[in-house]
Amino acid sequence: MSRFSEGQVPSHPTVLIVDDEATQRLTARAYLEAAGFKVFEVACGEDCLDSARRERPDLIMLDVLMPGIDGFDVCRLVRSDPDLMHTPILMVTALEDEDSIERAFAAGATDFLVKPMAWSLLAYRVKFTLRLSAVEQSTREALRLAETASQAKSAFLANMSHELRTPLNAIIGFSDFMRSGKLTPLSSMEYARHIYDSGTHLLQIVTDILDLSRVEAGMTEIREEIVEIAPLVRASMLLVSERAANQKIDLRVSYGGSIPLIRADPIRLKQILINMLSNAVKFTPPHGEIHVHVERNAEGGISVIVRDTGIGMAAEQIPRIQQPFVQLDDVLTKRYEGTGLGVPLALAMTKLHGGSLEFESRPGVGTTVTLTLPPERVVACCDFENVVA
């Protein structure tokens, strides 16, 4: 893999010289080192790949005619290696015919040099090739980001189409039936409740989208107050307690020692806690357990730990759920409702507080989410020692 970043050439580029002639290697090394390059060298094509994988050079200077594997074959081998495929290769040849030059480019050469070389110009040629490679790397990265953005846009549109249509269909369907005048007072109340629930859900989706947009645009500020965290935890648990009870999930909280007052935005902090608890309830099967623990951590800050016995996920899936609009289930077959905005929003609100949100999970075992607020936010202590609810 190339070591270039954002089109920049490394400050001390490394060059691997592959040539069976010792005089050629020594002369090239002398001129390149005098120009500030770090140089490695091997005498045959067989050693090129091993050395390149070990040293990860910024450029390979490769002789064409060598005993054993010639430069054309070595070039093809380098290009077939995922970690080396974008490394620029300067082919060095005494063959001046067009066929040899075409073979060099067909094998994957970036450029070529013809023997006998103008040694005084070697370093400039290498620098030019490195700059060209850096531009190519920048272009590849831009294309990759564009493809990622396009995929995210497609996933967003598909997901939003599903999430918005569901409550809208319920609102339109129930209200249309009520408009027909065929309902009893009892069924009218039931339909009105469904319309209210669907409208509330739709409003939450729109609110989440707008909140995330404001955060990404840098327009969200926290309004700090002196906050006692225990009441916020209890209030957040109350909002998910009915769903937990319906699924016969054991929901409990404990406090480790004296819990300090903190300086935070209570609305944003509650938003983080509700997200943590809602996901725990959502992904925990009936008769499972969710344990919330609040403690003063070793660094002097505050940790709120939500541990569930839910479905869990693989470690490689954790970075995905932190991206906006990502759902681990396919949009057409997913079992769990959601826009994929909750976790990114919680992460954003946590960062606004200078804290961290960490995830540990195992499929079939459960997930632990830890909200950590830094010591700078601690104001004073309240005694909740040995409290368990």
Task: Provide a descriptive summary of the structure in words.
The protein is of the alpha/beta class and 389 residues long. It has three domains: 104 residues, Response regulator (Rossmann fold, 3-Layer(aba) Sandwich); 63 residues, Helix Hairpins (Orthogonal Bundle); 159 residues, Histidine kinase-like ATPase, C-terminal domain (Heat Shock Protein 90, 2-Layer Sandwich), CATH 3.30.565. The chain contains ten helices and 13 strands. The chain has a five-stranded parallel beta sheet, sandwiched between helices. Helix 3 links the parallel strand 3 and strand 4. Helix 5 packs antiparallel against helix 6, helix 7 runs parallel beside helix 8 and helix 8 packs antiparallel against helix 10. The radius of gyration is 31 Å and the shape is elongated. The two termini are 53 Å apart.
Labels describing this entry:
disordered C terminus, Heat Shock Protein 90, about 20% strand, 5-stranded parallel β-sheet, alpha/beta, 5-stranded mixed β-sheet, Rossmann fold
